[in-house]
């Protein structure tokens, strides 16, 4: 598995550049680079954990009141916060 999912994936970089255009690709390079660094070390282990512990629909609370809430594994929440931090 590559150590840096952006730098080590030339076909991905070419595909992104082709779709974004040169200016947008250049502006987004630092974000893609940081995400590529975090992907194998931060996201991949959490994704494996979140895949093993799927979201659960909680229909009722401890008192029996209807809540219909989806409970996510903390790993999923950590990934969500990190991704939204990138904008």
Total helical elements:
3
Q: Give the oligomer, counting copies of the same chain as homo and different chains as hetero.
A: single chain
Give the proportion of residues in helices.
Answer: 55-70%
Element pattern in H and E: HHEEH
Give the N-terminus to C-terminus distance in angstroms: 26 Å
Poorly predicted ranges? none
Overall strand count: 2
Taking strands numbered 1, 2, ... along the chain, how are they ordered across the largest sheet?
A: 1-2
| Major sheet details | 2 strands, antiparallel
Our Rg estimate from Cα atoms comes to 18 Å
Mean pLDDT: 93
Binned strand content = 5-15%
In terms of structural class, how would the helical and strand content be classed?
Answer: alpha+beta
From the spread of the alpha carbons, the general shape counts as elongated
What are the salient characteristics of this protein?
13% strand, 87 residues, 2 strands, two-stranded antiparallel sheet, alpha+beta, elongated
């Amino acid at each position: 598995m590559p150590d840096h999912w952006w730098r080590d994936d030339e076909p991905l970089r070419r595909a992104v550049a082709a779709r974004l255009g040169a200016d947008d690709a250049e502006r987004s390079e630092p974000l893609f680079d940081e995400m590529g660094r975090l992907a194998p070390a931060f996201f991949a282990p959490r994704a494996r954990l979140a895949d093993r512990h799927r979201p659960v629909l909680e229909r009722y609370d401890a008192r029996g009141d209807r809540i219909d809430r989806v409970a996510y594994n903390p790993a999923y929440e950590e990934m969500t916060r990190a991704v939204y931090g990138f904008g």
